[in-house]
Amino acid sequence: MITFDSAFDIVLSYVKPLTAEVVDLYSALGRVLAEPIVSDMDMPPFDKSAVDGYACRKSDMANLLEVLEVIAAGQVPTKNIGENQCTKIMTGAMLPVGADCVLMVEDTEQVGCKHIKYKSTSVKNNICLLGEDVREKDVVITPGVVIQPQHIAVFAALGYAQVKVFRKPVVAILSTGDELVEPSQKPGVGQIRNSNGHQLVAQVIRAGGIPNYMGIVEDTERATFDAIKKALESSDILLLTGGVSMGDFDFVPSVLIRCGVELLFDSVAVQPGKPTTFGKTDQGKLVFGLPGNPVSSFTQFELLVRPAMHSMMGGLAKLSVEKRTLAVDYHRKRTDRLAFIPIVLTESGEVNLAEYHGSAHIFSLPNAHGIMAVPLGVSDLKKGDKVDVRSI
Asked: Where does the record place the MoaB/Mog domain (predicted)?
């Protein structure tokens, strides 16, 4: 049995980035950027007005100004600004030659048909200067960022109708166990519905991957071998739930070895999720054997599989941890494993314990806000202690 930190490091050490592909802007949302975004021009591309107003010379702003023309956004000025002259200008329009400031329209008054007078004494330029945001050939966004709507706006502004992103990993999902039936079926005596497989499909989608749900595998070595072999042929990652502990019908570890998987660990000092298994193939494919209890499989996916997927897609493989204040006392009897406990947050953001009956208690998760880490060797935490919380 190894520590969780060792398991985490082992998993990430065998992750290989996927190849990149070019997609259109809408398809890029939520993907990881695989190329630097470089500006093909200065931004703004010309001096432009930051407000609706009158472009003039600062030295003339106290004088009566003659209005030469009106410049709308997108139009090019036809007249230069001379002494005691101005041009009415709209926000974003190109500044005429000779002007060095823009008087806000609300600070001016009309004098006759062709003149204005400035009513204020402030001296603000109200000009967006050529290239003040970005210069031509600047690298504006670097590879590795998860693309959000604000990135899409920058791509569009810089002329990127398509961008290069890392490919999404294909994740095969197999559930083992003769006791399992699909959600559409009424379980018979001794049977349960397969919640793990469908939970993992949703987790894979949320993590940015492409799930390939391959159904329930009966508890025979032959069926397990055939299913694993087929899954490895068509996926980047294989997730199995059940069949990795010490039962008489837990064939998964031995079958994985027969399928060419090198097992790198088969037990982690965590609760829930002790029998979590990890291996890799010579082709760089990753295999995770997750425990059959739903809270265990959910938790170990978030702690080990999701970071591996993010790293595979070119992103940062870090666990998002927040320090929060415990709102109640906590006690446990056994301290030989790092524990992850479902929690709910109070209105003030403090940590309270969710109702939790153990790793089979699937109903503890829907109302939980996160999981709290209880370090190995620690039996008691006191109200007011700072604890590590991972959002789920």
From this structure: 172-311
Say if residue 113 is in the same domain as residue 154: no
What's the CA gap between 266 and 384, in Å, rounded? 36
Give dist(CA 300, CA 8) in Å, integer. Answer: 10
Task: Identify the bridge partners of residue 55 per DSSP, sorted by sequence position.
Answer: 87, 102
DSSP string of 106-158, one letter each residue: GGEEEETTTEEEE--------EE-TTSSB-TT-EEE-TTPBP-HHHHHHHHHT
Residue 201 located in a structural domain? yes
Tell me: the pLDDT tens digits for 222-280?
988 999 999 999 999 999 987 655 554 467 888 899 999 999 999 999 999 999 999 99
Say how far apart CA 306 and CA 206 lie, in whole Å: 9
Q: What is the DSSP letter of 295?
A: H
Which residues form the domain of 148? 22-42+140-166
d(CA 128, CA 137): 19
Coil/strand/helix, residue 263: strand
211/203 Cα distance (integer angstroms) = 9
> Per residue in 272-325, pLDDT tens?
999 999 999 999 999 999 988 889 999 999 999 999 999 999 887 677 889 999
In degrees and rounded to multiples of 5, residue 157 shows phi and psi of -65, -30
Output the six-digit token pair for 279.
Answer: 């291996």
C-alpha distances in Å from residue 233, one per residue of 211, 214, 319: 14, 13, 30
Cβ–Cβ < 8 Å for 68, 79: yes
Question: In angstroms, rounded to a whole number, what is the distance separating the alpha carbons of residues 272 and 270?
Answer: 6
Contact 58, 118 (CB under 8 A): no
CATH number, residue 150: 3.90.105.10
